[in-house]
Amino acid sequence: MPTKPPQSDIPNIGAPAMRALTHEGYTTLKQLTKLSEAELAQLHGVGPKAVRILKETLKANGLSFKPAKVGETLKKKGSPISRTDAVDEFLRGLRHPLKAEIEAVRVIIKSVHKDINEEVKWKAPSFNYKGEYLVTFNLRDTKRIHLVFHNPKIPQVKSKLLEGDYKDRRMTYFADRNDVQINKAELKKVVRQLVKLIDK
Fold it and tell me: What's the angle, vertex CA 140, arms to CA 134 and CA 143, rounded to 5?
């Protein structure tokens, strides 16, 4: 499990948060003064508790986060690296009647672009591209495959697979493995269009 880098004066904020900071090149408290609280919270793995601990530690050392811009609110981004290991481990322990179908859909989504990353979000496999979330499984639904396309650009994608009229998300459902295979090309088309929109 990742630990604090040598010479780091950053307090114990948990392995995921420390891994996120190290990945971005932040290993000292002074370096964190270049970030606002919103920017820090945007890093995948850094939760409210880690932000609070760091804020208190900075203050104790006469330091502070960079002042936030007026109205600054940043959304959480997807993992900057693909956590295939975490998804593999999660699926090994998954008890779901449509587990084989979930695996099949996972392969289809990942096949669309080499830079699509995966991680575990909402206690389910989730996929992102260039830090923007694409789609996440809703595993609470055990009678069918339920995908949630949660990206502000998804309303621009037109497909028979996309259901709902939400501001920033659409739903897709598959009844069984045969349904997945029948709609494989259309699913790839949806993901491909969303990736292209993100690239614009």
Answer: 105
CATH label, 1-76, candidates 1.10.1240.10, 1.10.150.20, 1.10.10.10, 1.10.599.10: 1.10.150.20
Torsion on CA atoms 14, 18, 19, 22, rounded to nearest 10: -170
Q: What is the pLDDT of residues 42-57, one digit of tens each?
A: 776 777 888 899 999 9
**pTM of the predicted model, to two decimals?**
0.63
**Which of 125, 93, 92, 123 has the alpha carbon at shortest distance from 110?**
125
Domain 84-199 part of CATH 1.20.140.10: no
Mean pLDDT of 151-155: 93
